[in-house]
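Q: Hi! First time doing this. I have a protein sequence and I read that you can turn it into a structure. Is that right? Here it is:
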Amino acid sequence: MRQMIRIAAAGVLIAGFSSAALAASPWGMWKRPNGSIAKVWPCKGGMCGKVVKGKGAGRVMFDGIKRHGGVWKGKMKHPGMPRFMTFNGTVTLLGNKMKVQGCAIGNAMCDAETWVRAR
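A: Yes, that's right. Below is the predicted 3D structure, encoded as structure tokens:
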């Protein structure tokens, strides 16, 4: 009986760690405030993100931005802006939310949106 309790407890712990690890990962599908869906995946030693459904579908938003501590930084694009424009970008994971920020003219003009994990 005790052995069964230990096995059940171990299973609960493993399930808890697995869901915590998933929540801590930026990889997967994210819903933007405008309702479109972006896919985020590891690439080029960093992070890539692309709008895959809805407004702006097919547009790459970031391509290999690198991790610096708890954030990813690099050049980003905005699906609503001309393709040639790039911004200084920062992506911060906040559990099941992701803050995506782009800045122009150094860090003088910034805009951000918060994405939520799509299910």
